[in-house]
Amino acid sequence: MALNPYDLYDVRSQLSDEERMIQDSVARFTDEKVLPIIGACFDEGRFPKELIPEIAGLGLLGSSLPTEYGCAGLNSVAYGLICQELERGDSGIRSFVSVQSSLCMYPIYAYGTEEQRQEWLPRMAAGEVIGCFGLTEPHGGSDPANMKTTAKRDGDDWVINGSKMWITNGNVAQIAIVWAQTEDGIQGFIVPTDAKGFTAQEIKHKMSLRASVTSGLFFDGVRVPDANRLPNVKGLKGPLGCLTQARYGITWGPIGAAIACLDEAVKYSKDRILFDRPIAATQAVQIKLAEMARRITLAQLLSLQLGRLKDAGRLQPTQVSLAKWNNVRMAIDIAREARDVLGGAGITTEYCPIRHMLNLESVITYEGTETVHQLVVGRELTGINAF
Ligand code: TGC
Ligand code: FAD
């Protein structure tokens, strides 16, 4: 029997029926709704907001959270497959779902009160309230401990001053999860984006994640009640705990981008006739394609095992760092190689590789740069902190 070229080790056979069904339904959404418009969205620098109701309708927002909050209550492998199929379309669509699910709904669920969960999670699962996550500041995102945004207690309120940079969904969000320095260490706040003193400014001239909104956030004496503070965590482990959730999903997403690029390269190389034969018949091109398939296969096995560890409650942040580093590096290398196989045609957004290649420049930077994740693994091996 012929092997599936995009799943050479039949990883799909390791999935449950439910996981397979979820993968198929998100794959259908990507094929029917994302792929027909995403090249144009990227060219125009437009996030396709019109897809939000269907993304919500498929249960993709906060999909791992319990059903009592209007969420789908899926396991971590299913969440990973969702990220993979969405990013086969575009990293920007996966980013939207990552931020809403792992960076906004997760902290409300994990660190919030029951009232906060009831107030926000069902509407966020339905896509009626969109969130953004403000951790990074303009002076350097890799070192969030050096946070300059402050929240000061004033009676029953908190007053927030400072700024955040590179914030996905900043200009489409109704609430921001904002991390700020307090007398008691770093704490998280739910900040409505219509609060007085809050401004979001969209970042223009991006050559990457063009189908996603990225913003600077500014806080000028923004006042929120104590009821908007996430009371169940203090310190950097609050935001870092959210990042572990999002980074886990990001290990899966780039597998989808890489599969899209391999698919494009295989098809193009079979059609492109040079020197009287398709370039797919040359050894050089076959080695390139085989190399792509090899690296995709390794990444698939890595993420599936990571997901099984997560579902068993045994996942460690260092394991997530290794997989984020490996899988994003795998995808960006494949996107560049696929672009090369397409020759001049590869530089246009008529074909997907250059779009994925440019998007992955953000993916390799956000949620911890490649260097940050390498140093996390190095620290695990040596016991020495090299940051
Ligand atoms: P350290 O000071 O040692 O630790 C502080 C506390 O946090 C705990 N911790 C973690 N908890 C959960 N998950 C993790 N990954 C954790 N890492 C550390 C740690 O146990 C400690 O707890 P406690 O109880 O002892 O207080 O911090 P560190 O030395 O481990 O951190 C250094 C470093 C460089 C790894 C960290 O600062 C870091 O990860 N920097 C990168 C920042 C980053 O990734 N920013 C991302 C911003 S959000 C974003 O990019 C969204 S893009 C979204 C999209 O569009 O998809
Ligand atoms: P810096 O931290 O200034 O790093 C600059 C360089 O220094 C990098 O190459 C880095 O690897 C290197 N470096 C850092 N430390 C060391 C070291 N110890 N040794 C050697 N080299 C080192 N943030 C949010 O909070 N919310 C979001 O929604 C969000 N969305 C984003 C969307 C996009 C499109 C992008 C591009 C970024 C987003 N970010 C978001 C920010 C992202 O997390 C940061 O860009 C990232 O953490 C890196 O921070 P920085 O850009 O300030 O780079």
TrEMBL record:
Residues 16-128 form the Acyl-CoA dehydrogenase/oxidase N-terminal domain. Its cofactor is FAD. One of its GO terms (biological process) is fatty acid beta-oxidation using acyl-CoA dehydrogenase. Residues 235-381 form the Acyl-CoA dehydrogenase/oxidase C-terminal domain. It comes from the Bacteria. Keywords: FAD, Flavoprotein, Oxidoreductase, Transit peptide. Its EC number is 1.3.8.6. GO terms for molecular function: fatty-acyl-CoA binding; flavin adenine dinucleotide binding; glutaryl-CoA dehydrogenase activity. Pathway: Amino-acid metabolism; lysine degradation; Amino-acid metabolism; tryptophan metabolism. It catalyses: glutaryl-CoA + oxidized [electron-transfer flavoprotein] + 2 H(+) = (2E)-butenoyl-CoA + reduced [electron-transfer flavoprotein] + CO2. It is an enzyme of class 1 (oxidoreductase). Residues 132-222 form the Acyl-CoA oxidase/dehydrogenase middle domain. PROSITE patterns: ACYL_COA_DH_2. Belongs to the acyl-CoA dehydrogenase family. This is glutaryl-CoA dehydrogenase (ETF). It comes from Alkalisalibacterium limincola.
